[in-house]
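Quick one, probably user error.
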């Protein structure tokens, strides 16, 4: 399903109510639409550096819908810190259940994940990040998770 299908009813209601030809949403709040120009561009989910908003809007409508990853505040904080302060870009889970982080994109073989950069184990946090699995064929991009996540209040809300 693409975003245009997922948000069809909400978009139609918004366009009819506002008589609006353009729409946007705050970053991370897809489905909560507002008219372009109502808020500063820095709050817009369609803003990409030096972008043509109409083109970005069309690409978003036609792109595959991705269910947001549900993160606890702790998981979100750890991932933000790893990306912004330590420049780690990827997280993987090894066969033994341990979580590792990498700065460069690791590749998986029968023995585990390998990269030119040394992987670091996050031992105390192995019980977190349950959306990362050994069975994953690709490493999980921390940037992609943070750009498509929902921070939840309680672990039981997952």
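Nope, works fine. Designed sequence:
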């Amino acid at each position: 399903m693409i975003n245009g299908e997922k948000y069809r009813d909400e978009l139609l209601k918004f366009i009819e109510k506002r008589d609006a030809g353009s729409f946007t949403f705050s970053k991370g709040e897809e489905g909560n639409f507002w008219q372009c120009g109502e808020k500063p561009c820095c709050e817009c989910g369609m803003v990409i550096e030096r972008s043509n908003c109409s083109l970005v809007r069309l690409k978003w409508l036609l792109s595959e819908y991705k269910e947001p990853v549900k993160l606890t505040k702790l998981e979100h904080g750890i991932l933000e810190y790893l990306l912004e302060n330590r420049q780690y870009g990827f997280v993987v889970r090894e066969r033994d259940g341990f979580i590792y982080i990498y700065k460069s994109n690791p590749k998986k073989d029968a023995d585990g994940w390998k990269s030119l950069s040394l992987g670091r184990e996050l031992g105390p946090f192995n019980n977190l990040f349950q959306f990362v699995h050994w069975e994953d064929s690709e490493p999980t991009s921390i940037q992609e998770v943070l750009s498509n996540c929902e921070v939840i209040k309680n672990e039981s809300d997952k």
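The longest strand covers residues 69-72.
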